[in-house]
Amino acid sequence: MIDVDLQDRLHQQLIRGAAEMSVALSSVQIEKLLVYIREFEKWNKAYNLSAVRDIQQMVARHLLDSLSVVPWISTQKNFPLTRMIDVGTGGGLPGIPLAIMFPEKQFTLLDSNGKKTRFLFHVKTLLGLTNVTVENRRVEEFVPTEKFQGVISRAFASLQDMTEGCANLIETDGIFLAMKGLFPEDELAPISDKIELVETIKLVVAETDGERHLLIMRAKQ
């Protein structure tokens, strides 16, 4: 059981960080996010979901980092994003936090690691996330019955690997949302003939040093 004092600190840390990033959280969303990160920390001991071991660091480096894209997704009008896939989701980042924040959108979480997808099934059931589908397979082997409007990834190799490897998953006018650290100038050059960089958003991630960027890309028509 988590002690009450630590639970209160995590609660305050999440609320404070989200407010700093202009992310509004309901009481239900706060509770689900905290249940998720507690389960993440517990399963991490056996399933090695993350190199981060301290739960307060997990709130900052996993939860708040994932929530940093919420303002853009909430306010953008140019792209319909009712069906999204999180490729190489690992322990559900950013897919689970985004599914909690956007219950009206459908999220598919894809990962080839069976231990990690076992954890995702557990969390989906525990939190009652009816808008989440978990797929345990390699990206090149996954053939969706319906293609996605958005492919998002937080740690999926290079932009070239992401855009080429996920080309079979996305609608013709769909977008790639790549969460990166430093602006990846060197990764854009090899794909410039096929991929258009539509927009770059410099993300604000509370309690986190270093640059973070969200790159919005799509295939050139």
Tell me the CATH architecture: 3-Layer(aba) Sandwich
Strand content: 15-25%
The Rg value, from CA coordinates, equals 17 Å
Q: What is CATH's topology name?
A: Rossmann fold
Assign the structural class, choosing from mainly alpha, mainly beta, alpha/beta, alpha+beta, or little secondary structure.
alpha/beta
Task: Give the helix proportion (percent range).
Answer: 40-55%
Q: Number of domains in the coordinates?
A: 1
User: Any low-confidence stretches, pLDDT <50, length ≥5?
Assistant: none
**Major sheet, described briefly?**
7 strands, mixed
Number of helices: 8
According to CATH, the homologous superfamily is Vaccinia Virus protein VP39
The end-to-end distance, rounded to whole angstroms, is 54 Å
